[in-house]
Amino acid sequence: RIRVAGSADFEIELEGGAAATVLDAKIAATASCDIDPEAMRVICRGRILKDDDVLEACGVKSGDAIHIARGSPAAPSAAPTPAPTPTPEAKPAAVAAPAAPSAMGSGCGSGDPAATHAACETVRVTVKGPGGIDVEVDFGAEELVAQARVVAAERCGLRADQAHLLHKAKMLRDDSATLRAAGVASGDVLRVA
To answer: How far apart are CA 113 and CA 158, in angstroms?
Structure first.
């Protein structure tokens, strides 16, 4: 656990142990402050730390404080391809069309409005990303975290392999977990960092 001081004081918990980097701290901090990691400056003992610096090597240990300040975003090495702007009549890419009734069995797509299945449940979340991106996205509750990461990254104009998903101050690391298993529910916020 590391204390973070800035416009608001809070604590973050890093899963990297001794190998946790400044970038890991920035990503964890985005859940508690409204600064994108690209614009965050992490200061410890009067020194601005770089993203790839290992916190332990910089003398930061559990219980210590780091300071976060808003800086200008670093220039990207390659400009991300902007995500396509969805049209109002377009269905979000994250929501798969229901399968034919014969493939789904009873319930989903069966025409029986009283029948419900967990697989049919839609979870509407707000995806927040770098540069003030704030968009609502519909996912299936049984979609995998990996699938949600791809869609959320696309909406933010990022590559999925460089994006991290945060939910309620925790990084979603288990790509094989469903959104339901990860505790994601309608109305929640997923932050892309």
So the answer is: 38
Angle (CA) 59 5 193, round 5°: 85
d(CA 163, CA 42): 20
Q: How many CA atoms lie within 13 A of 169 on its CB side?
A: 9
Residue 181: what pLDDT?
Answer: 95
For residue 88 the two structure tokens come to 């109002």
Query: E strands, 101-183, where?
Result: 122-129, 133-140, 165-167, 170-171
pTM of the model: 0.55
Query: Which of 58, 1, 8 lies closest to 30, judged by CA?
Result: 8
**47: exposed, middle or buried (Cβ count in 10 Å: 0-12, 13-18, 19+):** exposed
The pLDDT of residue 96: 35
17: left (phi over 0), alpha (psi -120 to 50) or beta: left
pLDDT in tens, 33-69: 778 788 889 988 888 999 999 999 998 888 888 998 8
Structure tokens, 103: 């493939």
